[in-house]
Amino acid sequence: MKSLADKLKAGKAKSPIKSPVAENILRYSVFYNLAELYRTDDKTEEANKVWLELANLSKNKGDTLLFRLALIQLDQNKKPVITQTLQQAPAIDGNRLGDTMQLSKTQDKSDLWIDGDRYQVVLDDGSRYVTDHNGSLISAWQTASNSRGSHINNKLHIGDAADRPFKILGIPDRRLNMTSGEYLAYDDYGLAIRISNDQVKGWFLYDN
């Protein structure tokens, strides 16, 4: 574990580490496990050195999310991080993937044709939905402009700190960098959380 952590330090890896997991997620996992090994052996000082090293490394790389996570771990008065399992499928304004949406004539709708199949894109109070020809919801976006239903199981809210998803859902399966911000993807839930300016700014539901 220590040797892998050394490889992930800035400038010390001779070649990229081959992994299907994003490098920053892999880095956090390795440093976390190494720190926990030290804590198990009652080597708290060594564990803190691990997190301080990750904080400095993340700061130099401009990775604000990992930097914040490392600082939280350095807080001696922090509560243990216990991830939780969502008891209900994520929803946007009460709409879950697979639900049949009841569309009104006043809603902003437009057709979307893909390989000869007709879909509809629906805009509703800052949220966007894509339905198939039967009206079933196949994807949806929640944005910060929508105040209704702007939470995931009352555990994750728009405006939460960027490290909140890690505390609630654990380490994401993937991290996606897009022009609209950074997304943390949790494939088990079909949920991608948008991070921007160190805050949760919305999320995207997808079929996993």
Report strand order across the widest sheet: 1-2-3-4-10-9-8-7
Instruction: Write down the overall geometry.
Output: elongated
Structural class: alpha+beta
- The total count of helices amounts to 5
- Helical content class: 25-40%
How many β-strand runs? 10
Could you describe the largest sheet, including whether it forms a barrel? 8 strands, antiparallel
How many structural domains? 2
Point out poorly predicted stretches: none
Q: State the separation between the terminal residues, measured CA to CA.
A: 31 Å
Provide the β-strand percentage band: 25-35%
| Mean pLDDT value | 78
Could you characterize what this model shows?
The protein is an alpha+beta fold. The protein folds into two domains: 2-74, no CATH class; 108-205, no CATH class. The chain is 28% helix and 26% strand. The strands form two sheets. It has an eight-stranded antiparallel sheet with strand order 1-2-3-4-10-9-8-7. The longest helix is centred in the N-terminal third of the chain and has 18 residues, at 23-40.
Strand-helix topology:
Elements: H1 2-7, H2 23-40, H3 44-61, H4 64-74, E1 108-114, E2 117-124, E3 127-131, E4 137-143, E5 151-152, E6 156-157, H5 164-169, E7 174-178, E8 181-186, E9 191-196, E10 199-205
Antiparallel strand pairs: 1-2, 2-3, 3-4, 4-10, 5-6, 7-8, 8-9, 9-10
